[in-house]
């Protein structure tokens, strides 16, 4: 009983942030760290760590965090990487023993890469993706539609710099 109660309490620090909701479940993230580890003309690679959690909802989804929401938190933070780049935004995360990279066209997301885009915009700009003026905000930050979008396996996060650009037709 005590273990369950501890799993529901949000980790200390900044308030949890909603990632997205789908099929009666919401995903949450609580930032732990965000560190630039390499810069190049193409962009800045950042290592981000966050504790993830989920909540179940039978009625309306929440639009933001409230202490009344029962969130089950993972025991440890997950470490991901973002390539903050206006020409080729990208996100990398572990899946088992492999790294998966999402090249992001922030204006044309699929369901599989929405959480990556949410994490990317927060890590690189502190911007929430679900705001009503997000297209205008992204254009103001220098992003344009039509960047590469897709998922590939990579050997290490530094390979985000080497993802091929979008093929021209």
Key descriptive features of the protein:
169 residues, alpha+beta
Structural commentary:
- This protein has 169 residues and is of the alpha+beta class.
- Helices cover 15% and strands 37% of the residues.
- The protein contains 3 helices and 8 strands, in the order αβββββββααβ.
- The protein has helices at 2-8, 114-125, 134-140; strands at 17-22, 25-40, 43-56, 72-73, 78-84, 90-95, 98-103, 150-154.
- Strands 1, 2, 3, 4, 5, 6, 7 and 8 form an 8-stranded antiparallel beta sheet that branches.
- A hairpin with a 2-residue loop joins β1 and β2 (25-40).
- The longest helix has 12 residues, at 114-125.
- It starts with a helix and ends in a 15-residue tail after the last strand.
- Mean pLDDT is 88; it is low at 1-7.
């Amino acid at each position: 009983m005590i273990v369950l109660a501890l799993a529901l309490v949000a980790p200390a620090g900044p308030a949890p942030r909603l990632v997205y909701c789908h099929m009666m479940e919401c995903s949450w993230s609580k930032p732990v760290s965000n560190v630039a580890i390499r810069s190049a003309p193409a962009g800045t690679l950042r290592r981000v760590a966050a504790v993830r959690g989920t909540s179940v909802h039978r009625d309306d989804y929440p639009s933001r965090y409230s202490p009344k929401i029962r969130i089950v938190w993972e025991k440890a933070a997950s470490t991901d990487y973002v390539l903050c780049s206006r020409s080729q935004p990208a996100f990398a995360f572990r899946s088992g023993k492999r790294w998966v990279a999402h090249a992001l066209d922030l204006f044309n997301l699929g369901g599989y890469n929405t959480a990556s885009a949410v994490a990317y915009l927060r890590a690189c700009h502190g911007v929430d993706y679900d705001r009503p003026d997000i297209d205008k905000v992204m254009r103001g930050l220098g992003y344009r539609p039509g960047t590469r979008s897709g998922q590939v396996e990579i050997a290490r996060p530094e390979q985000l710099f080497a993802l091929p650009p979008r093929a021209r037709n």
